[in-house]
Amino acid sequence: MTVIEDRPVTVRRRTPNRRRWLFTAIVGAIALLVNVPLLNAILVSFKPDGEIAANPLGLPTAPTLDHYANVLYASGYDFPRFFANSAMIALGTVIVVLAIAVPATYAIVRLGFGGRWIINSASGLRLLPAIFFVVPFFLLFTTLGLQDSIPGLIAANTFLNLPLAIILLAAGLRDIPNEIEEAASVDGANVYRTLWGIVLPILAPTMVAVAVLVFIFSWNDYLFALVLSTSNATPVTLGAANFITSTGIRWGDISAASFLSTLPPLVFAVFAQRYLVSGLSAGAVKG
Amino acid sequence: MSTSLDTRPALGTRKRAVAARKRSRTIAAGVLSLPLIAFAAVFVVYPLITGSMTAFQASTLFDLAGTFNGIDNFTSLFTSDGFAKSAGFTVLFSAIVVTVEMVLGFGLALLVNRRFPGKKVFFTMILLPIMVAPALLGIMFRLLLNGDIGAIPALLQGLGMSVSLFSPDSVVPLLIVLDILQWTPFTFLIIYAGLQSFPSELLEASAVDGAGYFRSLFSVIMPVLTPVLFAAFFLRAIDALRTFDVIYVLTAGGPGTSTTTLSIYIYKAAFESGDFGRAAAAALIILVCLIPFVPFIVKRIASTGMEKTK
Fold it and tell me: Domain check: are A147 and A240 in the same one?
């Protein structure tokens, strides 16, 4: 797994101090620029209704938490339910993906099941457009009664994220020296005990990386939620957009809702950055 | 499963034990893969088959069962100009954004790839747009660009410019700029990660030789970094070609059909026009066009991923 170290490839060894601050200024400006939409939404979410149109550029002069109160409980929005749906879908997908991918990848990498062929089809599947599966999934889910249900969206997101999980887990497993498992099997442990008691603890960091990525991608899914949910299973990506049409344009509430909906992935981005970087750069494709 | 079982009479207990272990491992491989096989059968193989079949059926939102209609769906795709137009827009849009994002991402990676104060904080900040749900980012863009309350129109007005951002003339450049803002952090991340695993001896050697920065860049860094650049390019290209969320939230493919990507075209064909057959046919054409590239890309990207994780 690639861990980003602070080991810059500099051709010139010593940079004078003043020039270092120049880089701070340039990179800082770029870091702010790419986050303008998010920062703007945060600012708007603290402005009282009257100020939003009157003062579109400045900081809030009379900051208020009203929009957060509206979104969370005060005005009968369904936002808390959308949020809970997203949480259930994302956590459910993480559990199902790991439950399917960990044993299967072990069988592929260590027990010779299917071999490289399966890993390659997993990579290939990741490249095919998700839109192809929208119509057949709609038909299938209608038949199975999974339409507009949390299990249905968990299944759809599992489909989207399994290939990435298999690719990352296979790479993680190859990193574990075979001798450890051989020693266990000489001691008489069967395959299942070796997998559960010896391989899983060593594989844990890779599993965390997979869990973090799968959580974020399932939380952020929009296309399948749009097609496969109507009201009961609506997640925040869809629910936050619903505010625009269903309540007139309450920009303050919309910005509070979209910022709150973005928080879980952002928290991961900050605190589990190491895993994200390794996971995304190991040939991952965003779903 | 290719494990051959030794069925000859056992020569000794040890050999029997080895055969038994082999057999139990084969069984375990099957048991452990069973959930994956079951899931793939229902949610990958079956949809691939039904999706392909729907392409040859008259199937609508109100008649899901569908009846065979030959190549009618394909004929209707090619006789109306909506499909070709959205394909053209998608390819043009992707070509522009991916090129710009590669250049900017590479430049930013080189810029960040040194020691300077505040590096950790800014590195994390640059990665944030990758984590924001594209659909939510779309809403945030609406907030930012709205003619009445948006900061950008207010800023432009303050500078004495009156531009209607979502007018037919400016909407495509606008979407291109937004995509670049959203995804340059991704190409940056991949290329930066590649720079980190760069063998530093190479650079030291070239520094000893007295090569300048740009000479080292092109003759030393670029050749070694090529697989990483390739991976970043293809990962982005594939994502750009299926762009849906941000554009759908911002313009829903309009005004008219001027910003309809292939994904939006298929979605609308299925769930606005209710013509599942035409949507499936369009999806099948895209799938068939992409399949020849898959083994090639898988080989390149998979090998990059594997090397990195060693």
Answer: yes
Count of CB atoms situated within 10 Å of the CB of A198: 17
Q: In chain A, how many domains are there?
A: 2
Do both A95 and A236 map to the same domain? Answer: yes
Q: Any chain B CB within 8 A of the CB of A230?
A: no
State whether residue A137 is helix, strand or coil.
helix
- Whether residue A69 is contained in a domain is answered as no
Kindly determine whether residue B51 and residue A135, on different chains, have CB atoms separated by under 8 Å.
yes
Tell me: pLDDT of A284 over 80.
Answer: no
Q: By the CB < 8 Å criterion, does A10 face chain B?
A: yes
Q: Are residues A102 and A21 in the same domain?
A: no
Tell me how far apart the alpha carbons of residues A35 and A58 are, in angstroms, rounded to a whole number.
16
More confident residue, B225 or A220: A220
Other beta carbons within 10 Å of B73: 26
Asked whether residue B1 carries a pLDDT value surpassing 60, the answer given is no
Nearest to B139 by CA among A250, A93, A234, A254: A254
For residue A44, give both structure tokens: 């708007």
| CATH numbers and ranges of domains, chain B | 80-309 (1.10.3720.10)
Suggest the residue from B131, B187, B244, B287 to mutate for an interface test with chain A (most A CBs closer than 10 A). B131
- Decide: helix, strand or coil at residue B58: strand
Question: Which of B48, B114, B216 faces A23 most closely, judged by CB atoms?
Answer: B114
CB atoms within 10 A of CB B273: 13
Does one domain contain both A95 and A140?
A: yes
Looking at the fold, whether A21 and A86 belong to one and the same domain comes out as: no
Domain around A58: 17-64
Residue A287 scores a pLDDT above 70 = no
Which of A64-68, B218-222, B262-266, B270-274 is predicted with the least confidence, judged by mean pLDDT?
B218-222
Q: Are residues A56 and A125 in the same domain?
A: no
pLDDT range class, residue A243, cuts 50, 70, 90 = low
A207 and A83: one domain? Answer: yes
Highest mean pLDDT among A57-61, B14-18, B55-59, B93-97: B93-97
pLDDT at A96 over 50: yes
In 3-state terms, what secondary structure has residue A203? helix
User: Please, are residues B300 and B230 in contact by the beta-carbon 8 Å criterion?
Assistant: yes
Both A124 and A172 in one domain: the answer is yes
Q: Is residue A175 part of a domain?
A: yes
pLDDT band at residue A5 under the 50/70/90 scheme: low
The residue ranking higher by pLDDT, A71 or A33, is A33
DSSP secondary-structure letter at A149?
A: S
